[in-house]
Task: inverse folding
């Protein structure tokens, strides 16, 4: 190839980089680097203006290498590679330099130091760019079948969406019955329909669908391969079965925290979790004269700092149910903050207030006390808003506990080589730019295994994940990364050890 | 260069799938850290050849970090097992030739461990500062020439 002519595009990213790094100084420095033919600063290199300026630069200055110094390749590399390709440059002649996440954002109080570092990183990038060579990408076929792990509402929705589009789906459920968490739930808010009425027709359709192969009482045992061509082994009661799929959707759900040792749970028989109350409401609705529902039990504490999002609504829903069963009952919801997001939920909150449910705010420093002999008889709570202590007589205490990562998450994360986040839920590729996708191509995630979500959110995510999974299957081909191992003839003695050693048969 | 103004030069080899993402998260979380380190993205910690590290330390780099996925989480299944074994040996070899083995740090950072990345970089930078500029090789190499 002819002598390198490198174009360097330095992004201000508004003030994200430009507010810390002296971009004009960096641009001036880069001009003096060997083989650099063109340098410019952009306000936003990833904007339409920035990209067209990049393409124009390639034409005007006959660039045969491009370096963009901006954010992280994990999100923006494909965009700039595409732009290079559109300007007629092979996409492998592009080099990304990260001067935001690894520079301006982590040295934001030391502008001079960050500027020197940005210069250093760009110098490294330009040096590497000069060594780049054009590559051709190989294409490989995609098996038009998918694996969906988890037969709850998210998994079933994803499986049906794919099956209705004509793809064959393997649905793996660890329990003997489809339905997941919704089987245990009584009614759904804000519509008040019975949970079973919602999932019954869905279960029926999944079971009857000709393009869905059900594997119940089954666990995914082994996964190998790559997007378009995964080999799956499923174990059902010790019996193993193998098949190949093109894409994978993870919808394995979450567990509910058992509040052992909190607020007399396990000690008093009339202290229940929301899930246990739902069970009672379904079977034999209890007649209650005084009930206290405590929110944020085991969540938003130092050990588990996140908000589980769905418990406030669960608590409102069941408070209204208890009021319906006995309008004279004194029903209190003790909360630390009430999260009733969106118009519908806010309306539901007003409905609960209208129904006579009382709301009291407690704080973590002064949590409610459950007192009684043999059973919970009184709840003593410091009302943080009025600044006084109240004694509430109860015959039922209900604890709203958060969704926690399923115990199986770690196993599945290792099986699929996809990461878990800080809290133990699955971590998608990018929370804003690539939701419901894993960084690994061809694997997607939806429902409560991703993060606490209600039914309608789980369904939306299931549609999103399965639709993304359908893309490579519909295309029929995926392009494989062109950078692969090869043997260098001048070093090679022909011993063949590399062929034997490589676990991926890459050579 | 006096020891007071000594700014170590550090290379951090980060794997594309875990530790590079962890470093990104540190950035997104605006976790501040010393600017001595320069990240080189590699696809896997197993891609880092021992020669690269030796070459870096020979050419004026004062410390090298190799950061991969946690054991068991490797995108390439067992790449980090290989890296783990390889760098234990390299550390011994460095010590044998007189380079302080603390100049090489091998650790695992997941995509959600921005804070761990910050801690590792901060502490490694501090340690390399204590060790001073990497001159051990130069002494070794210059002696026979006299």
Result:
């Amino acid at each position: 190839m002819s002598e390198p002519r490198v174009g360097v595009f330095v992004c201000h990213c508004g003030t994200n980089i430009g507010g810390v790094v002296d971009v004009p100084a960096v641009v001036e420095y880069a001009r003096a680097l060997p083989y650099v033919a063109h340098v410019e600063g952009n306000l936003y290199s990833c904007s339409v203006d920035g990209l067209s300026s990049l393409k124009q630069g390639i034409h005007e200055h006959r660039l045969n290498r491009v370096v963009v110094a901006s954010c992280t390749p994990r999100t923006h590399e494909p965009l700039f590679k595409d732009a290079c390709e559109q300007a007629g440059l092979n996409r492998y002649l592009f080099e990304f330099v990260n001067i935001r996440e690894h520079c301006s954002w982590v040295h934001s109080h030391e502008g001079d130091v960050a500027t020197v570092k940005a210069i250093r990183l760009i110098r490294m990038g330009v040096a590497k760019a000069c060594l780049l060579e054009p590559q051709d990408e190989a294409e490989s076929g995609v098996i038009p079948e998918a694996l969906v792990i988890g037969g709850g509402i998210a998994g079933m929705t994803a499986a049906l969406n794919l099956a209705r589009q004509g793809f064959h789906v393997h649905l793996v459920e660890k329990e003997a019955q489809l339905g997941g968490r919704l089987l245990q739930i009584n009614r759904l808010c804000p519509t008040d329909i019975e949970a079973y009425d919602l999932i019954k027709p869905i279960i029926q359709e999944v079971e009857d669908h000709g393009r869905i192969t059900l594997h119940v009482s089954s666990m995914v045992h082994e996964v190998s391969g790559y997007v378009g061509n995964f080999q799956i082994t499923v174990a059902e009661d010790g019996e193993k079965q193998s098949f190949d799929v093109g894409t994978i959707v993870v919808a394995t759900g979450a567990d509910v925290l058992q509040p052992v040792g909190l607020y007399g749970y396990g000690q008093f028989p009339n202290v229940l979790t929301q899930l246990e109350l739902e069970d009672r409401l379904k079977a034999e609705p209890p007649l209650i004269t005084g009930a206290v529902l405590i929110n944020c039990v085991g969540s938003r504490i130092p050990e588990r700092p996140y908000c589980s999002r769905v418990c406030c609504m669960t608590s409102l829903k069941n408070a209204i149910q208890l009021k319906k069963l006995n309008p004279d009952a004194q029903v209190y919801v003790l909360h630390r903050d009430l999260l009733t997001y969106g118009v519908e939920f806010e309306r539901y909150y007003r409905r609960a207030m209208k129904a006579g449910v009382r709301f009291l705010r407690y704080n973590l420093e002064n949590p409610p006390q459950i007192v009684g002999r043999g059973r919970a008889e009184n709840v003593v709570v410091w009302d943080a808003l009025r600044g006084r202590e109240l004694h509430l007589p109860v015959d039922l205490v209900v604890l709203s506990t958060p969704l926690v990562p399923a115990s199986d998450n770690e196993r599945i994360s290792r099986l699929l080589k996809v990461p878990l986040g800080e809290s133990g839920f699955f971590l998608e590729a990018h929370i804003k730019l690539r939701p419901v996708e894993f960084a690994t191509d061809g694997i997607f995630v939806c429902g409560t295994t991703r993060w606490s979500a209600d039914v309608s959110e789980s369904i939306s995510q299931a549609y999103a994940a399965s639709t993304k999974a359908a893309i490579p299957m519909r295309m029929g081909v995926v392009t494989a990364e062109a950078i692969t191992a090869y043997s260098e003839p001048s070093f090679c003695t022909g011993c063949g050890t590399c062929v034997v050693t490589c676990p991926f048969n890459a050579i | 260069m006096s020891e007071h103004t000594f700014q170590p030069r550090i290379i951090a080899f980060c794997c594309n799938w875990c530790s590079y993402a962890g470093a990104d998260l540190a950035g997104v979380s605006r976790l501040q850290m010393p600017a001595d380190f320069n990240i080189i993205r590699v696809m896997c910690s197993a891609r880092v050849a021992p020669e690269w590290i030796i070459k870096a330390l020979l050419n004026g780099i004062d410390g090298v970090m190799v950061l991969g996925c946690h054991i068991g989480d490797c995108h390439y299944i067992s790449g980090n097992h290989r890296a783990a074994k390889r760098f234990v040996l390299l550390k011994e070899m460095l010590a044998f030739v007189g380079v302080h083995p603390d100049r090489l740090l091998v650790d695992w950072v997941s995509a959600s461990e921005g804070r761990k990345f910050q801690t590792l970089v901060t502490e490694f930078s501090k340690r390399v500062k204590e060790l001073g500029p990497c001159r051990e090789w130069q002494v070794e190499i210059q002696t026979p020439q006299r």
Notes: The domain at 10-132 of chain B is CATH 3.40.50.960 (Rossmann fold). Chain B has a mean pLDDT of 89.
